[in-house]
């Protein structure tokens, strides 16, 4: 698969630890957790490694959203597609009529498109290059009544681990309030993938009284990787 397409110079498929920059070696060691098909030619930029949702977590989230969303919501918008981990899992779930994936870095978008081909789901995803807030308002607005929005935003880098409670008000470049306000204009069904140490009081402030917003930790080998908050009255069934 990797031989079918020429990768631009910013994209790598590292095969040996010696080739991998030191600050991403930790992630490279977990490459099969991130992409079980890594050896089939998965592409990443060096910056994209930090934000990839591990494949078992992405699959679990995709299953939960599919089961919890109302039946008329058959479109999934992935606002920060990155290298494609979540979009691929949504497409593989087979639940959505269409997955719309937005990424503003053109090189990272190429990785996502390529990785979707590796996983055999490229034909199930429509890709957009650009700012998610703009694209949602301009190109996706007609889909709003049928859509669920998932966002795995940047958390300001791996430094998020330094805080025992992560302040979502100062998250860079988009705060929790910015994300929630912008996405809620588009759809009331919003799922956010956030640091496992996120300040739960800050998440709770956005909850509407008649619509509880479950928070789910997603774990691997007994440790939380991240949490999702489900805003908008999802009927979350645990399994
Ligand atoms: P981590 O804490 O950097 O790694 O990221 P890990 O493997 O828990 O560290 P260790 O202490 O166990 O070695 C954990 C998960 O958080 C990653 O797998 C990503 O899914 C997610 N993640 C990390 N960052 C920095 C981001 C980010 O900026 N945005 C998003 N959306 N996810 C991130």
UniProtKB/TrEMBL annotation:
Catalytic activity: a 5'-end (N(7)-methyl 5'-triphosphoguanosine)-ribonucleoside in snRNA + S-adenosyl-L-methionine = a 5'-end (N(2),N(7)-dimethyl 5'-triphosphoguanosine)-ribonucleoside in snRNA + S-adenosyl-L-homocysteine + H(+); a 5'-end (N(2),N(7)-dimethyl 5'-triphosphoguanosine)-ribonucleoside in snRNA + S-adenosyl-L-methionine = a 5'-end (N(2),N(2),N(7)-trimethyl 5'-triphosphoguanosine)-ribonucleoside in snRNA + S-adenosyl-L-homocysteine + H(+); a 5'-end (N(7)-methyl 5'-triphosphoguanosine)-ribonucleoside in snoRNA + S-adenosyl-L-methionine = a 5'-end (N(2),N(7)-dimethyl 5'-triphosphoguanosine)-ribonucleoside in snoRNA + S-adenosyl-L-homocysteine + H(+); a 5'-end (N(2),N(7)-dimethyl 5'-triphosphoguanosine)-ribonucleoside in snoRNA + S-adenosyl-L-methionine = a 5'-end (N(2),N(2),N(7)-trimethyl 5'-triphosphoguanosine)-ribonucleoside in snoRNA + S-adenosyl-L-homocysteine + H(+)
One Gene Ontology MF term: methyltransferase activity
Pfam families xrefs: Methyltransf_15
CDD domains: AdoMet_MTases
Similarity annotation: Belongs to the methyltransferase superfamily. Trimethylguanosine synthase family.
Species of the source: Aspergillus lucknowensis
InterPro entries: RNA_cap_Gua-N2-MeTrfase, SAM-dependent_MTases_sf
Name the record gives this protein: Trimethylguanosine synthase
Top-rank lineage group of the source organism: Eukaryota
GO biological process per UniProt: methylation
Residues forming coiled coils: none
Keywords of this entry: Methyltransferase, Transferase
